[in-house]
Amino acid sequence: MQKLSIPALVILLILGVSSCRTNKEELVLKGNEYFPLKTGVIRLYHIDSFLYDNYTGDIDTISNDLREEITDYYLDNAGDTIYRVQLSYYSLSRGKWEVQQSYSRKVSGNYAIENIYNKPEVKMLFPISKYKTKGSSYIWNLNMFNNGESAVVKYIAVSTAYFNGINSYNDCVSIGLQKPQTGAINDVREEVYAKNIGLVYRHIDQSDYLTLGKRGGFEVFVRLKL
Length: 226
What we know:
The chain is mainly beta.
């Protein structure tokens, strides 16, 4: 039997230890690739909104397509690059896309921030972490930079495939409320982002059954088409 030299044994021991640790190490992703910011990028979303009348029991359904375009960028006083986003709807009467609203996005330090109606929300916390045996450990307050009520969210899934009802995506991260509520009062929020694409799915359920046993409030589904 051939004897191994001391250096060879040391190398084998190092390799053995490394292989043992690999299964327990956390997967760390920088995260920016799930919140890409580049001018000229256009995304087309399909939105289904359900408005529940808790007195009549009626349900108003509004479905339409919206176009999102990153139009330009500028620097704020803190030196962060702010990207301006325009959301447009298609006017059948005029035969063209018309701007509905503008808002902004930026990556500042460890935060991916979207600011709509002067209410900045922290969409992601960087880096994105996933333990192979324990699951993701990162949680944060969505409203940490505004005066809104605390909304604690977390990574539900990391580096997984996802079907948003229209298209399939191979590498996604899912984010949701840490303690969603369903029942008499619904408080559900989930967002899914695909690598090098951005938002591909959003679901918000702010409805309840508190009046006359009928459903009130609203529910929204946002799905990326193109």
